[in-house]
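hey so i finally got around to running both of the ones u sent me last week. sorry it took forever, my laptop kept dying halfway thru and i had to restart like 3 times lol. anyway pasting them below in the order u listed, first the sequence line then the structure token line for each. didnt double check formatting much so if smth looks off just lmk and ill redo it

first one:
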Amino acid sequence: MTRTILFLLGALALLLPAPLAAQGFGAGPAHIQASLEAETMRPAPGGETTFAFVMKPDAGWHGYWKNGGDAGLGMDIDWSLPTGVSVGELAYPVPKTLVIAGLMNHVYEAPYALTVPLKVSRAIAPGTMIAIEARARWLACTDKVCVPESGTFTLRLRAGDGTIDPASRARFDGFRAQLPQPLGSPASYTIDGADIRFAIPLPAAIAAADPHLFVATIDAVEAGAPQRFARDGDRLIVATRAAPNLTPGTRVDALIRLAGSRGLSFSAAPGDVPPIAEGFDIGLLLAALGAAVLGGLILNIMPCVFPILSLKALSLARAGGDERRARHEALAYAGGVILVCLALGGLLIALRAGGENLGWAFQLQDRRIVFILLLLVVAITANLAGLFELPGFGGGEALAGRGGTRGAFWTGALAAFVATPCTGPFMGLALGATLVLPAAAALAIFGGLGLGLALPFLVIGYVPALRNRLPRPGPWMERFRRWMALPMGLTALALLWLFWKQGGSALLAFAAMAGLFLVAALWKAGRDQQRGISAGRALAPALLVGLVALIALVRIAPHIAATQSAADADTPYSADAIAALRASGTPAFVYFTADWCVTCKANEAATIDREGVRQAFRDNDVAVLVGDWTDGDPALTRALAQFERNSVPLYLWYPRGRGEAEILPQVLTPSMLIERARAR
């Protein structure tokens, strides 16, 4: 019923005369503001220029692709053109999917532009006025209502030399960048019962991080049907459900979205397409799962995780010979670690399915999340230093740093959350596999990562011989607890440094002041606790300080510009920059990094920024390009996905000449780079 109503409204809009200005059907302004722009107002006779319908949906509204899906309509235009002037087909950018009431929609929720080429005949004399009129109709919808809208647009051009203003060129280049690129090689499809399979020529080296097939040909496929993807060498196979009334032999026009707004358009003719094997590559899953467990195990010795693990070490030592308590705490700790890894992995998969360009540790690209983590680390530092005592949970046990299954669970959850910026050996394979495996298998990879991180404490909890080697409880535990405030405090300083890199001195000053106020409030809470005031009353002012600081950050963060975090001597990575170096045959070293990536910073300090390495680069004319992923730049996310990665670090070496990129190990050595720089 919903689909029928939408199509009736759309058909009614196409029959109504267009008003003189863009507006909604009936009274009131349009919900998608539309304007018509020309790349040049002086098109050259015998040449071609580009027009663009610039569409700006109101918040909560969306427009449609040429084939709106189960419910929706694209734009319809009636042109009024002078003799000697013609227009081509309307070009749409890569859309997004939106499911409403079980119906699949192909939509644009953010501002977008529809471009159209305009040709001017050589017979038109220079200086001739060219009057263009377009009567356009489109559909604007929310998740509850659709409104047919329309408008009449006029432009007065004058035949000239075709000069394009640089600002206009840049603006239209931006519009063209959102369009799918035409796939030069032919595609094919075959109908197999109720299903249809497409074979799209796509080199195996091209990653499809978030694929979706949008079919432009009406009544070719069922838009809301599930889509399955598989590789067949240099072909991407897509299987879905064919529309019941698809005419055999029909040429099908479509586009394949690879990731975000990146897509390839193609036309498919009937042909032989191999079936997709059911299931997935079990070998890839097992290899990735093993790499995830090993990667999580290695995370236990990474600097970003060790301060949190010290809390669990205290708890295990306090358990002593109580085997039942030790096992319960080990299981609770593992549960906290694995559940957080699964939650983060599930959120990452869901956001990528919604079109976001994100990778592992995506939450630390949000200043608000980093700020919450900073306040938490400051509070734990103050607790370890003895400024205050944490309130009890379940039998008087503390949230973290004390005994009890609840304390163990939250300690594990915190350890997993803090571990996310770390990427150690074996994790590149594991996290890269989540891009191509089904959602359930990808979640298993994230669960394996959590299992590896929790494995040492599971072993200690269930192997008495190992647990008995731990030191016995005693006065040393309180001294050890005080010392552990030092690495935790260093973690807080590292987060402050990340704030500075993300937002400059203004954000650093704000975070530092918030941390100082929180420490003061916690010190006051500790004094109140010593006088017998309940923990809840004593800590209320500290919680209020943290809440006020978080609200203030939410308000000021959008107005604070990020600072450049790449080394001044290195060139920021871009596809154009690397293409220019390849064209000239210049050797290049490319490294993708982030301020919150400990492995990245260790490699930079120990290898990349060593004077011997830099001198070898200078002596041999090696270009150095850096991709700073601290704030989750979508362009860099797509660049990582091209090499089947969704995390940093990633190191690439382009040899002298025009050879293909070599992916270097995640742990670099100076000799590794120096030898490649000197190679001829």
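and the second one:
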Amino acid sequence: MKQINYLNILSKHTGADKRKKSVFGVMYFTFLFFLSSFALQAQVGEVIWEDNFDTFNTQQWTKDIGDGCNVGLCGWGNQELQSYEENNVYVADVPGEAGNKALVLEAKRENSGSRAYTSGKVISDNKVAIHYGMVEVRVRVPNLNQGLWPAAWMLGTSNLTWPAKGEIDIMEMGFSQSGRDHQGETASTVNNYVGANAFFPTPGGGVGNIAYDVDYNKPYVAATPLNDRFVKYRIYWEPTQIRFTVIDGGTEYDLYENPFPIDANNPNTSTFTKPFYMLLNLAVGGLLPGITANDGINAPLPGKMYVDYVRVHKWNGHGSVTLSDGSIAAETGTFGVFTDTTPTTNKFAFGADSEFYIFGETLVENTTIAPYEGSNVLSFTNDKDKGWFGAGIISLFGKNMSNYSENGSLKFKIKIPADVSFIIGVNDNYTNAAEVTFPAGETKYGLVRDGEWGEVTIPIEDLGGLVAFQDMSYMFRIGSSGAIPATNFQFAIDDIVWVDGNTTGCQPTEVTPYYNINDQSWVSDTTVSLQTGNSVAFGPQPTTGGSWSWTGPNNFSATTREITLSNIQTSNAGNYTASFTNDCGVTTSVIFNVSVTTVSTFTPDPNKVYYINNPFHNKRIGANGSEDPFTASTTTTGATLEWKFTAAPNNSYYIDCVGGEGNTRLRSDNTDFTDMQPSSYAGTWESWQITSANDGKFYLTTLESDYKRLQMTDAGFLKQVSTDSQGTWEQFTFTEVEESQPPVNSCTKVSANGDFNVKITTTSEGSYLTFIPQVTSVGANTLILYYSTSLDAIYPGYMVQPNVPQLINANAGETVYFYYTYSLPTGGETNTANSKMNFIVGSCNDSARVSEAIVKKEKKEEFNIYPNPVEKELIIKTTSVNSYDTVVLMNSAGQVIENKKLDNITTLIIDTSNLKSGIYFIQLKGKTGVKTSKLVKQ
């Protein structure tokens, strides 16, 4: 089934600049922000684009004009008071910097239409698109007190509406007093407080932003006002995160506790993995300053915002800038909107340049209807209670389909009940739309209503009218027409293609996929499931004419039609693209999606003793000399639970209990139950084959005439079942009773509290840390790994899972320091920061924890807060009277409960007896900075 994103987007409006600021945002993520990482090998590269504003470059910037009403967004969505005017944007000399010019955005108290103020704004939409990199702006703002709102920010270039397109605020100032109070900066002023933000969609059509979390947000409060002098603002943007900073006086300050994590596979943050354009503006009034009436503006006017330059550098190898004149190259031939195997000249790549959207949650994806062609289909059940339905496929960056407007056609396959009336339509990027209606029960455009797949061909001229085909948004749209049936129904759409009726030249050749595994029969499919050790041959057709080329994982390439991959490993997984160029020069491709499952193997050592466990039941097998084996908890030990393996014929083993006395050998008696017999028994009923069940588990199968598989029942009995049974009750693991020496480059660390062990493994790919619980359910709900190659650094956090190796970013010979935060089975969490472990990459001959000298260094704190949890009195001690001067006690919502001065004392006692039970925060401020600690009130 095709992946569908449920963003309730009905249509695109041109007012994409709608913004909601931090004090009004909806916080969707909470602690996720604390799990991001900052690259250990971070590197700023060369400048890939810049504008120093020596002149105003109209090829890169557009002066945005008006008050937003012209695009249906009066006040620009924020109740702003100004109208942006062309004359308020110009290039001028920078005061005090001889020979240097800058872009000027000037706010004035003058009328324009119904507005009492004018100002300036520029955008790079359709001219300059930025995709990753280190973006830096050098900005000087005027006196903002109170009512001016300067910003340097970015919006996604996609056709989606805000917030689905995403917003990145590199800097903004002008926050109201209530906004600053919300962040806990009650003593700050509008001119020395600056923040940053990012907006994104949340499930159900909501809006999320990162600034709303006061514990994560860390606006910069300067000691010297930031107005009337230049300050640099940056984002470090890469495929996995965005870091926001400000550089003041040569010192760089982070604007958030950790970089904001983004993920191309997360529907909320995937928008930040696509290109954005730049906006620079100086607003007057609005929601962020908290002034929405003309007489509330007190800032001295005119006020000038200077932008000295905008620069984009490579960052960690990432970064690109696309320059455009706004035009889109015209498509020709056949264009695949949604198709797998149908030959097309070009086609959409979902997630990269297109998306499928359901309108108003009116449809639910199902797997009932099989694809018409290929392996993907758009198959749905409607929700009759909605009273309507709709969905569509949108081009994220526009498509020029002007070559199709006269003789072209829109073709697709549909399977839909005869009593459903529906429309098929398209939209351009100028708010225009066109559609045709398919009444219930009628044959139209070739559609026969017989309950089977039908083919529809709509001439594009029937979808004409005002539609601007040179810039299309929705390339296919379906919706209800009038009343829908009283009961839910199912329908499906497939093989959607635009056909250019003007192209009479060379046409693409259909490519048919074929593969075989281990020299077995050929299969015509693109989904290939392999196991490690397999071989696979690909042999797509046609077999004659033209030429072939291949690309694949690990820089794989080939120029023959048929290729073979032997001894498949997990590194071979991925997409293999076979491209066929026919004799007249048109190329058609097919993509084989290869997945590889690791097959576990186990060869018992005859000199070692093992436990045989069933992890599903948490029991292990035992025997004490009677005919009946028994089972016990996996925590039970002793000779009666220990087993040895001896090689038997046909790649099988005899399994004997060390403490089994007279009847030591495990046997299937060819009945339901398993029994024990003396070791002198050596027939097929006593020999067991070990076969993989994957994930480190194995089946035990006997060799009697009708093969039987060992099973542990829910009651703990050992029985025999058919080999057709392959459930969890038949899966076992083998664990050495006496742990052998760890292999080279592998070792185990033991936590100070005994809750867990950490296995350290180094391979050619790097070093892995595996958290192994020693107490049941430790880390089951929350498990965060913190590590760094610097003991005194801020340790980034990574969400990990118990018993799953986590690759870390460090080089051979470096010392890695690490600790965990993990959930407890009794509730709450434990943090082991005070018992850090360490190891040297490539060697495990280290102490289990940081040496005493290092621990002492680590524990040298500038302050101490105890007891925690607290009941009646909280004691705060600092190392020096010069360390901190203010102590703030806040609740979990960021509201200030107490604000006390230290007044040259090193010890402060706060009465907490009247506080309600819950989470609080203690914040210490002073010359050494701001420190925040979490406090638990019992």
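quick thing i noticed on the 2nd:
The radius of gyration is 34 Å.
anyway thats it, ttyl
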